[in-house]
Amino acid sequence: MARPRICVFAGSSDGAKPAYADAAGGLARSIVAAGIGLVYGGGRVGLMGALADSALAEGGEVVGVIPSALERREVAHTGLTELHVVGSMHERKAMMVELADAFVALPGGFGTMDELVEAVTWSQLGIHAKPIGLLDVEGYWRPLRALVDHAVDQGFVRAAHRDRLVWAEDADELVEALRVGSPTAGTSG
User: Fold this and answer.
1) Which of 32, 86, 133, 141 has a CB 3.0–4.6 Å from the CB of 60, allowing a cystine?
2) CA 188 to CA 17: how far, in whole Å?
3) Cα(71)–Cα(24) distance, rounded to whole angstroms?
4) Contact 11, 50 (CB under 8 A)
5) Can you tell me the distance from the alpha carbon of 160 to that of 179, in angstroms, rounded to the nearest whole number?
């Protein structure tokens, strides 16, 4: 059986707080300690770089997927276990979904949000049944959680779809809650 993998969506910048990069490193260590491989956007800068470097330092498997148009802008990481250079953002997201058994969003901007929302939408549509988590570093995702709750209240999102998301402030707890590689993977509590 192949090693399970978690795909992490993360910013290509460090953000305003040192806690974000610290959380990226902590998440990487939690993933590797659980015997899980990492899939991510393939960059060497920002939270993506902190995530990859920490996982590599722990001896983990790190697979990057980066579009050729971003290969220079996000400074593709050349020290990964595997680096896939694809033709478009659509190909990037499709390959990351294919390679991963679960997804986690770290703080990030529009690109991170786009990847997260697409993974959630594909789950809602039944394209995949892989668990999705958000590492809520210092309340970063709290406004999104409120928006999702509002969408449920207003009848645009079903409560069952909202409840598929796993929210956590601790990386170890989040990795455990995703149950990657276990018989109950794909469910959340």
Assistant:
1) 32
2) 29
3) 21
4) no
5) 19
pLDDT tens sequence across 163-180: 999 999 999 999 999 988
Assessment of whether the complete model's pTM goes beyond 0.70 = yes
Helix, strand and coil content of the chain, in percent to the nearest 5, comes to 45, 20, 40
The answer to whether 164 touches 129, Cβ cutoff 8 Å, is: no
Return the pLDDT at 189: 36
Q: 175: closest CA among 166, 184, 183?
A: 166
Using a 10 angstrom Cβ sphere, with 0-12 exposed, 13-18 middle and 19 or more buried, the burial of residue 145 is middle
The distance of Cα 69 from the centroid of its chain, to the nearest Å, equals 21
What does the pLDDT look like over 51-70, one tens digit per residue? 999 999 999 999 999 999 98
